[in-house]
Amino acid sequence: MAYGSRFVIKQGSVPNLVLGIAAVGGIYTAYSYIQSSASSQPRKVFGGVAGSLTLEQTEDINHNTKRLRFAFPNTRDETGLTVVSSVLTLSWPKGSLTPAIRPYTPVSDLSKPGFIDLMVKKYPGGKVSTHLHSLQPGDSLFFAFGIKAYPWIPNKHDHVTLIAGGAGITPLYQLIQGVLDNPDDRTKMTLVFGVNTERDLLLREEFENYERKFPDRFKIVYTVSQPEEGSFVRKGHVTKELLEEVLPARTGKVFVCGPPAMENALTGKGRGASGILGELGYRKDQIFKF
C-alpha cells in the first residue's frame, strides 16, 4: 500500500489505463518539451499529465526510507498541487510484465518551484519501493497526474487531530506544512504518531521545529512500540487510553493514515463499526482516512 491516497482500479482495467496514460503522457511530454524550449514561462507541472521527471538527488532518511527529489524541466515550474494532494506514478520494476501504478504524497513544500520530493519506504518484497530505491540521479520516473486527496479549507476547524502510523505520516505532514506555513490559517493541530522504533519517526526534526515555532498551535505525541533503552519517548501503541489522555474535547476533524490494522482499530471495520474513535465520541463525518 502506498500512503497518501485511496486509488482503486477495477480488475481488467489496468492495461487500458496504462496504455491510455502512456499515450497521453508521451504526447504531452513532447508538447511540453517543445513549449518549454520555446518559452521560459513557468507552468503548472501537474496541471495535466506531467510526464517523466529526472531524479536530481537522493537522501537516506533511515535504514529503509529515502527522500527522492525530482527536478522539473524549468526551475521556475510549479507543482500546481494544493493541500492535500498526491501524485500518481508509473514505474517498471525489474521482472514486471506491466508498469506498476502507485500514488505517493509529496513531502516538499508544494509552493516551491523547480522540484518535487517523495519519501519512499522500502518494504520487504516490495517491487515498486525496491525499484525506486535503486534509482540514481539522472534516472527518470513517469508521473501521470495529481490526485486531490482532501479539499482543505483554512480556518474551517478550530482544531484538527492527526493520527499516523509509520509511512502514513506523509499526507499528514503535507497538511501540517500547508496549515502552519500559511499565515492566514490559524487552525490548531495535535499529531499522534505511532511507530515501531525511534528511527521510524520520519520527519521528526521538521515536526519538532514546527512545535518550537508554534507552541500554542501544534503539539506532537510520539508513541513507540520498541523504544531505545533509556529513551524518554512514550512506549506503546496508539490506544484508546492514549487518545483519551492527549486529545482535546471531541470536536473538529480527525485525519487518519497508517497500516490497515491500525486504521481498522481506530475507525472500525465493516458497516456500523465505529472503532476506538467512535468509542471516544467522534462521529463518522468527523473522521477522514487517507
UniProtKB/TrEMBL annotation:
- Say where the protein is mainly found: mitochondrion
Reaction(s) catalysed by this chain, per the record, are:
2 Fe(III)-[cytochrome b5] + NADH = 2 Fe(II)-[cytochrome b5] + NAD(+) + H(+)
User: Taxonomically, which superkingdom?
Assistant: Eukaryota
Which keywords does this Swiss-Prot/TrEMBL entry list? FAD, Flavoprotein, Membrane, NAD, Oxidoreductase, Transmembrane, Transmembrane helix
User: Transmembrane ranges?
Assistant: 12-34
Q: How does it sit in the membrane?
A: Single-pass membrane protein
The cofactor required is:
FAD
Instruction: Indicate yes or no for the key word Transport.
Output: no
Q: Which InterPro entries match?
A: CBR-like, Cbr1-like_FAD-bd_dom, FAD-bd_FR_type, Flavoprot_Pyr_Nucl_cyt_Rdtase, FNR_nucleotide-bd, OxRdtase_FAD/NAD-bd, Riboflavin_synthase-like_b-brl
Pfam families the record matches = FAD_binding_6, NAD_binding_1
Protein name (record): NADH-cytochrome b5 reductase
